[in-house]
C-alpha cells in the first residue's frame, strides 16, 4: 500500500509540473493583439501533434479558433492562415515585411544560398540564374531531349517484374535531374550521390536537434558529403576546360552570355535546390498518378488513348518531341488532378521581418506565417465533388489560371520549375502506359501527411501492354 501511495504521489506531482509548464508557456505568448490559439510545450511546441495528426490537427484548431490562429510548430512560434483571400495577399506581398520562413533544419541542410532562404536582391539574382536554366528555350532545346533519352532507358526492362513503384519513382526523379545537371558525369557519381541525397531529404523536415541518430544530424552530414562530391566535380570540370551543355556547364560559364554569375558555394546550393525541389514533387506525383490510374480504369483508358495516338505517328524506337509534349492536354490534366487530390504541397512558410498587422491581429517580428493551402484543394465550391479523381475538370484551361490555384505555390515564389516537372512526369507516363499494364500487389497503406508516402512501399506487378 505504501509503494502504491508513493507511485500515485509521484504521478500527481509530475502531472502538476506538466500542467504548470504548459500554463507558463501559454502565458509567455499571451501578448495583447496576438491571434487566439495554443502553444504547447516549451521548445517543442505542438510539433508532435502537428506531424502525427496533420490535417486533423489543423481542422480541430480551426474549429476552436477560426481560420487564423497561433501555434508553435517546427521550432518556431507560428501563425497559421487557412483563409484563401488572406493567403493570396500574403503570397503576393513578400516585399512588405514578409520573407521565406522555412524551418531552420531545411535552411541548414539546403544551404544559406538556396533560393528559399534568400530574399531581396539576392533572391532576384538566384532566381534569375535558376530561370535561365529552366527557360522554355532551355527545356525545349537541351533538357527535354535528355529527359526523353533517360526515360526510355529507365523504363526499358520492367516486363514481368514486381516492383516498388515508390522506390522506382524516387530513383527516376533523382537520376533524371542529375542527368540534366551533369550529363557526362551523372552515371559515375550517382551511386555515391543518391544515398546521401535521400538522407538529406529526410533531414529537411525535422526538428533542428543536433544529436547522433536524429534525421537532422544525418541530413546535415549528408550535406557535407554532397558538398565534397559537387566540389570535386566543379574542380574537375574547371581543370579540363571542356565545354558542357548541361545545367552545371551553364552555371559555371564565365562569358558575357551568363548574366547571373555565381560563386562556387552559390552554384552548389543552386544544384542542391534544383535536385531537392524537383525530386519531391516529380517522384510523388508520378507514384500517385500510377496509383490513381490503376484505381480509375476510364481515366487510364483516356490517357493511354492520347499517348498511343502519339506513338502511332512514330517508329518504335523514335523519341517524343517538344510538339508531342505540348499536345498532351489530358496528361497535363491528370498531373494537376493528382497533385490536387494527393496534396503533395500542404502550404508555404513566410517570416515577418518587422511587427505587422494581419487580419486585425499584431504579428511580432520573427514569427512564421504558415500559409496552409491544403483545404483549398477540397473546397466543393471550387472543385465540385472534390474527393473524386476527375482530370476532365482541368480540360477547361480557365481553372489553371484561377486565383485559388496554388498547387505550385503563388506570388513571386511560384515554383519556377513547374513546366520542367510537368515535362518529366509526362514523359514518364508516356513510356509507362504505352509499354506496360500493371496490377497492385497487396493493399499497402498510404500516408498523406507530412509527406505523401507508402511506408511499406507500393508494389505493382508489371507486364507488357
UniProtKB/TrEMBL annotation:
Keyword annotations of the record: Brassinosteroid biosynthesis, Heme, Iron, Lipid biosynthesis, Lipid metabolism, Membrane, Metal-binding, Monooxygenase, Oxidoreductase, Steroid biosynthesis, Transmembrane, Transmembrane helix
CDD domains listed in its UniProt record: CYP90-like
Required cofactor(s): heme
Reaction it catalyzes: 6-deoxotyphasterol + 2 reduced [NADPH--hemoprotein reductase] + 2 O2 = typhasterol + 2 oxidized [NADPH--hemoprotein reductase] + 3 H2O + 2 H(+); 3-dehydro-6-deoxoteasterone + 2 reduced [NADPH--hemoprotein reductase] + 2 O2 = 3-dehydroteasterone + 2 oxidized [NADPH--hemoprotein reductase] + 3 H2O + 2 H(+); 6-deoxocastasterone + 2 reduced [NADPH--hemoprotein reductase] + 2 O2 = castasterone + 2 oxidized [NADPH--hemoprotein reductase] + 3 H2O + 2 H(+); 6-deoxoteasterone + 2 reduced [NADPH--hemoprotein reductase] + 2 O2 = teasterone + 2 oxidized [NADPH--hemoprotein reductase] + 3 H2O + 2 H(+)
Binding site for heme: 415
GO molecular function, one term: oxidoreductase activity, acting on paired donors, with incorporation or reduction of molecular oxygen
Transmembrane segments: 6-24
PANTHER family reported in the protein's UniProt record: CYTOCHROME P450 26, CYTOCHROME P450 85A1
Protein name: brassinosteroid 6-oxygenase
Organism this protein belongs to: Gossypium hirsutum
Gene encoding the protein: LOC107910165
